[in-house]
Amino acid sequence: MMRAVRAVKSHLRKGDDLHKALMAYRATPLSHGSSPAQLLMGRNIRMPLPLSQDKLRTRWPNLQVFQQKSQYLK
Q1: Residues 6 or more apart from 8 whose CB is under 8 A from it?
Q2: Which residue, 6, 10, 31, 61, has most beta carbons within 10 Å?
Q3: Distance of CA 37 to the CA centre of its chain
Q4: Is the overall model pTM greater than 0.70, yes or no?
Q5: Distance from the Cα of residue 11 to its chain's centroid
Q6: Single GO molecular-function term (predicted)?
Q7: Is the pLDDT of residue 12 over 70?
Q8: 47 within 8 A of 27, measured Cβ to Cβ
Q9: Mean pLDDT throughout 29-40?
């Protein structure tokens, strides 16, 4: 619970809207992998844009794993 309060306070300090801060918290997966919104409604809620900077970064696949899978499929 303390982590939730810290996350909401962090968003408010950044100047985010209260509704966006709560929506971001509700859409963020917890330690067991499901978000509070997913636990409540049984599905993920739609967010306008990812608010986390990690979600905005490009993730490149591991080249070695890609080559191994490519060789395996040939």
Answers
A1: 21, 22, 25
A2: 10
A3: 12
A4: no
A5: 15
A6: nucleic acid binding
A7: yes
A8: yes
A9: 83
What DSSP state is assigned to residue 74?
-
65 token code pair: 């794993």
Length of the chain: 74
- pLDDT above 80 (res 49): no
Which residue type sits at 61? Answer: P
Coil, strand or helix: which one is 26?
helix
d(CA 19, CA 59): 29
Of 42, 34, 7, 2, which Cα lies nearest the Cα of 23?
7
Q: Which two tokens stand for residue 59?
A: 């993730």
| Other Cβ atoms within 10 Å of 40 Cβ, number | 11
* Residue ranges per structural domain of the chain: 2-73
Among left, alpha and beta (phi > 0; psi -120 to 50; other), residue 64 is alpha
